[in-house]
Design goal:
The complex is a heterodimer of chains A (153) and B (504). Chain A has 153 residues and is mainly alpha-helical. Chain A is 67% helix and 0% strand. Classes of the chains: A mainly alpha (153), B mainly alpha (504). Chain B: InterPro entries: DUF112_TM.
Chain lengths: 153, 504
């Protein structure tokens, strides 16, 4: 775990340096105040850089609680699938519409968490339609209909 | 004597059947909205403004409705915090620290009812304080200039690290990440685009809802995946639903202390419930010392932030009503609602429209009592969420999270950003970084930078302003003590280890 922490600290440190370089040219065209727009971010990035440098050389051991299982290949694979499903959800949210995207992503996700096919399909479909009605119709949070747009008229 | 007269008049307004029904429906809606992850008081109040306006409510009823929703949301926010370990908003982050472990120990019902009780006491103390001190507090709060605010926020950030115990460095880094993220977007003072990478969706910064849902909801969803893999359930609810007298008595002084603290913190503009709950939790943790089991389900650790939130939620209305300065995001939204009715909050409001002010204050009493009465029997319904299996719950959390994020700006960019932040949060969690400092840093970051720049504008760039007044100087001394504490602790542990090694 210490190596992973070192890698993490190094990556974050590089990001800090990159962001600081990005912040360097930030200057107001004309200004009424003594402190410009780059002072605060540079201060924060500098402090973060120092803390990360310390961590790079002296990483602290990670304490695992008992109910925190070690990561194995299978879990990592599941996490990868879950992230992919979430990305599909974000990508199809507008083109396919809220209800279709929710069912499309929700059902495989329910399967991933150990649900059986039939109850997963039934519950997720009902929830998707119910949530749409609750938020779009009742609470005035506009949600895209997408493919189901034809039903509206 | 005047105050009591006005208060009586206020109860006359609040206790009309029409306003009672308004307050009741407000508390119910608020509790449900607060219960849903990703929908906090800001969303709840913001969503209700157009509805209240469309319903044609008179101004005092509209204000009562919004205040009741506000209180209900603060109330409902604890449910997802305690049962799911997902704080609905920043202020309930501290509630998760001990509330979730309590739920995992099978005390979910006790945790919920105890937190309802704590919040009630906090709100009651603050409402009494509001009646007594509103005019005096207005004067006191003005004494805080930008320099004082900046130093107070530095103190708050250092406090987080100093109180974090075994991992001050990681807490500090997490807070800095939050502070940095707050500077993304267009700079309000100079109009310079910062860290946006020419992406128009980032121009007004990272939305708080996106950050909070990514960090907590998405990373929790990924963590749950590991646990179902091993056949472990998130939380199980068994046993008692109500706290007993002994438990209530054991946190009574915590309630009183944190209620007063929450009220004072709530009154300070810009501080609000988030800071109050953090400071209350940290202070009680300190005071309990070795006798406490904070972080593992200590009842005091649950009561402290809840009481402070209850106190701060009411206290935040004081600067809003007396000065027109919002103490929190929610009160800022409420000022927007008031301006729809052509009401300008400020000292004049007390003289010109006492019905509105005192009716609102009286309705806070009424709404608080309603919440306790409603919540204690409804705890069974709330805990029933736990009986829902993960495979049904997690996709629904994911979908509602998506709605919550989409509702802010209606762009799918925010959805992708949330997933990115969620993965980052998951990695941070796996590497044992605490996540709540990221959020607190994010909230304080904008305020900190504004106050720093304002202070230095006042002094024309001279840094002395940051430590010249007695308040700032005192804050710096406290900050130094806080910085010194973890170093002392580390040094002690090291020398103990060295001695142990030498003996072997």
């Amino acid at each position: 775990m210490l190596t992973i922490q070192r890698i993490f600290a190094a990556v974050l440190l590089l990001a800090c340096i990159g962001l600081a370089l990005m912040a360097w040219p930030y200057q107001a065209a004309f200004s009424y105040e003594p402190v410009g727009p780059r002072a605060f971010p540079l201060l924060i990035l500098g402090l973060m850089g120092l803390a990360l440098l310390y961590m790079l050389f002296r990483p602290t051991p990670v304490v695992h609680s008992e109910d925190d299982p070690q990561l194995d290949r299978e879990t990592l694979q599941k996490i990868g699938i879950c992230v992919a499903l979430l990305l599909v959800f974000a990508g199809t949210f507008e083109p396919l519409g809220f209800i279709v995207a929710s069912i499309l992503v929700g059902v495989p996700m329910a399967r991933l968490y150990g649900g059986r096919w039939v109850p997963s399909v039934v519950i997720i479909s009902l929830m998707a339609i119910g949530l749409y009605l609750l938020f779009d119709k009742l609470m005035d949070v506009p949600l895209p209909l997408g493919l189901l747009d034809v039903l509206e008229n | 004597m005047d105050t009591l007269n006005y208060l009586g008049q206020g109860f006359g307004v609040a206790l009309t059947p029409y306003n009672l029904v308004t307050a009741l429906s407000g508390t119910l809606i608020g509790t449900v909205v607060g219960l849903l992850p990703g929908l906090g008081p800001i969303n709840g109040v913001a969503l209700l403004i157009p509805i209240a306006f469309a319903l044609g409510l008179p101004p005092e009823s509209a204000l009562i409705l919004l205040a009741a929703v506000y209180l209900g949301c603060e109330y409902g926010g604890r449910i997802s915090s305690i049962l799911l370990n997902i704080p609905g908003e920043a202020s309930t982050v501290m509630t998760t620290l001990d509330g979730y472990p309590m739920a995992r120990q099978g005390l979910a019902g006790v945790a919920l009812s105890l937190s309802a009780w704590s919040s009630f006491i906090g709100a009651l103390i603050a409402t009494c304080g509001m009646v007594l001190f509103a005019p005096l507090l207005a004067k006191w709060a003005i004494a805080f200039g930008p320099a004082e605010y900046f130093v107070l926020m530095v103190f708050a950030i250092v406090c987080l690290g100093g109180m974090a115990g075994d991992r001050p460095l990681k807490t500090f880094i997490a807070a800095l990440i939050g502070l940095f993220l707050s500077s993304v977007g267009i700079d309000a003072n100079s109009g310079v685009y910062r860290f946006t990478g020419d992406n128009i969706h980032l121009t007004d910064g990272i939305q708080f809802v996106v950050l909070v849902l990514g960090l907590f909801s998405i990373s929790e969803i990924l963590l749950l995946l590991e646990k179902t893999h091993r056949g472990q359930e998130a939380v199980e609810a068994t046993g008692r639903m109500m706290f007993n007298l002994k438990e209530a008595a054991s946190v009574f002084w915590v309630n009183i202390r944190c209620g007063v603290l929450g009220f004072i913190m709530g009154v300070l503009p810009g501080a609000g419930a988030t800071l109050a709950s953090a400071v209350a939790y940290m202070t009680e943790k300190r005071m309990a010392g070795a006798s406490g089991t904070f972080g593992q389900g200590d009842k005091r650790g649950l009561a402290a932030p809840e009481t402070a939130i209850g106190g701060a939620a009411c206290g935040a209305l004081v600067p809003m009503l007396t000065l027109g300065v919002p103490g929190s995001g929610t009160t800022a939204v409420m000022i927007g609602a008031l301006s729809l009715y052509n009401i300008t909050p400020g000292p004049l409001l007390f003289q010109q429209q006492p019905d509105i002010v005192w009716g609102l204050i009286a309705s806070l009493f009424v709404a608080n009592i309603m919440l306790v009465i409603l919540n204690i029997p409804m705890i069974r319904i709330f805990t029933r969420i736990l009986a829902v299996p993960n495979w049904a719950l997690v996709p629904v959390i994911a979908i509602i999270t998506g709605i919550g994020v989409y509702a802010v700006h209606a762009t799918t960019f925010d959805l992708f950003l949330m997933i990115g932040i969620g993965i980052f949060g998951y990695i941070l969690r796996k590497l044992d970084f605490p996540l709540s400092p990221v959020l607190l840093g994010f909230i304080l970051g904008g305020l900190m930078e504004q106050n720093l720049r304002r202070a230095l504008s006042i002094s024309n760039g001279a840094l002395e302003i940051l430590w010249s007044s007695p308040i700032t100087f005192g804050c710096w001394i406290l900050t130094a003590i806080m910085l010194f504490l973890p170093l002392l602790r580390i040094w002690r542990r090291r020398s103990a280890q060295r001695r142990a090694l030498a003996n072997v």
